[in-house]
Amino acid sequence: MIPMLDYLFLGIVQGIFEWIPISSEGVLVLLASALGKVDPLQTALFLHLGTSLAVLVYFWKQWKDVFTLKDKPLARFILISAIVSLPVGFLVYKFVETNLGPGLLALMGIALLVTGIFQRVRISIKLGNDALAIVSGLFQGLAAMPGLSRSGSTIFALSMGNLDPDEILKYSYMMSLPVVLVGAFYLAVTTGVLLSSWPALVTSFLVGLASLHLLISLSKRINFSIFAFAFGILCILGALLSFLS
Fold first, then answer.
1. Percent helix, strand, coil in the chain (nearest 5)?
2. Predicted local confidence at residue 207, as pLDDT
3. How many angstroms separate the CA atoms of 18 and 103, rounded?
4. Residue by residue, what is the 3-state secondary structure of 58-86?
5. Is 11 or 115 the better-scoring residue by pLDDT?
6. Closest to 26 (Cα-Cα) out of 116, 138, 133
7. Which of 209, 245, 173, 164 lies closest to 12 in space, CA to CA?
8. Domain limits of the chain?
9. How many whole angstroms separate alpha carbon 81 and alpha carbon 175?
């Protein structure tokens, strides 16, 4: 498989997995590592830019209301959540980046098991808008850890508020945009990952845009926790085999 096809494949995976409560980042790190990419974590993080652009296009009417402050509660929520997510996510990213040893696979497996738990647990707490933004931003920042699903984590956190299911999905997807844009800019400036990953970026945008509507509908009917549990167990078993070998 030539490198261009490798990147196209990774873009397709990101475009599909981003919308469901399974860590697209965790899956991409494993696949990028298997394909021999030099910086699998950076590649996985950067590809979120493509699906975030799909969020911008898909929810364009809602973004217009945010940009014009017509929907002030949503604008305030996105701002507060981003302020919380950025420093938390940066610290998590730097920790994982400097600890890419044999234990990463086990760490990803544990994170995926946590993702599965997030899909099973529902909390009856009803937080106000600002408190919900802080909690959701914290969970989104922690999801910079490969294996911990961003959508799964934020959906779990958003269930603590007074939002209906459609609003939970909308808030979960929209709150990612400013954080991913800042993260992608940081990676482009500091690593040059933009130059090597653009085919996957374009593919993740196109596939993500095409699949978003379908996967929003499916996410209301299918429980993805079993997949997160199974994938997490496989990661942990793989890590054990690596330690024993």
1. 80, 0, 20
2. 87
3. 24
4. HCHHHHHHHHCCCCHHHHHHHHHHHHHHH
5. 11
6. 116
7. 209
8. 3-244
9. 7
Q: Is 164 strand, coil or helix?
A: coil
Q: Which amino acid belongs to residue 206?
A: L
Tell me the whole-structure pTM to 2 decimals: 0.73
Helices 48-58, 60-67: axis angle to 10 degrees equals 80
The token pair that represents 197 in the structure block: 């990953």
Tokens found for residue 26: 């965790």
* Residue (of 32, 17, 48, 31) closest to 224 by Cα position: 17
User: At a CB cut-off of 8 Å and minimum separation 6, what does 157 contact?
Assistant: 132, 135, 136, 138, 139, 140
The pair of structure tokens assigned to 103 is: 């234990």
Q: What is the pLDDT of residue 1?
A: 44
Give DSSP secondary structure letters for 26-49.
Answer: HHHHHHHHHTT-S-HHHHHHHTHH
Instruction: Name residue 84's amino acid.
Output: V
Assess whether pLDDT exceeds 70 at residue 5: yes
- The pLDDT tens digits of the residues spanning 187-219 come to 666 766 555 667 777 888 888 888 887 766 766
Amino acid at 10: L
